[in-house]
Amino acid sequence: MSQSSNTKADETDIPLLDIKHLNAGYQSKSILKDITISALKAGTITTLIGPNGAGKSTLLKALAGLIPANGNIQLGGRTLTSLGIKDRAKILSYLPQSPLAELDLSLLESLLYSARIKNEATDNPLIMPELEQAALQVLEKLDLQDLALSNLSALSGGQRQMASFAQAALGTELSGTKGHLFMLDEPTSALDLRRQEQLMQSLQTLAKEGCIIMLVLHDLSLASRYSDRLIVLDKGTLVADGSPEHVLTPKLLRSLYGVETKITRSETGKVNMTITGLANDQTKES
Q1: 225: which residues sit within 8 A by CB, 6+ positions away?
Q2: Using the 8-state DSSP alphabet, how is residue 106 labeled?
Q3: Domains plus CATH for the chain?
Q4: Model's pTM, two decimal places?
């Protein structure tokens, strides 16, 4: 599979996510300040990057309806802020940083439990044998079939993270992938290199099936190889927005992270980044 999603569609009526003048935070603390992000298209992968505390996780939670937010947020022509949690669940999925809790359930049981809830809310719910087959197919795609009957408490952190992804991916497929917003907060943090690539390739597949993928990554090399678009946040504000080739520059990385980098391009035009050291205070500001 290619390491670039290559999912740009030609249709002019594909679903879009438009975010205008978004403000969000926790209780009396404002985090996101007047964020505007336009035309995130179905069939694309967009990655949020930025230092710790930049507002990346807050943005995903605001779109999922988990924290107070105001602004104009449109998904496929529907205003997200006017929808309840159940209605949002039909058109978006959110995978938080924390993997599945260590419940006294097998991986397959936990998958079916969450899937039944989402299945009941769909327009054409599956009957139980169909739902079980769909769950087994997702586990097979993610190479988790050998863990299907393992108790969640027996899984490693990385295995639970993949199990969480399987749960969210199954729910997305049940809702229908076209125009579905799939958000993931640091989904590769506990994964080894093989599992990271496997998860990112699965996201490519979901994008090609019509999802709008938005995720948070700290691994900029991974983000640059798989993302159509990078959105850079810092201190709750939008700093940069564009393709990895245009966004990832030594100047921006020096300013955001305080590191010196060497940027090269692969034969396919993808960004290759090497950290060469820490920036001193003077160069960080320049």
Answers
A1: 3, 4, 200, 270, 271
A2: B
A3: 16-248 (3.40.50.300), 249-286 (no CATH)
A4: 0.90
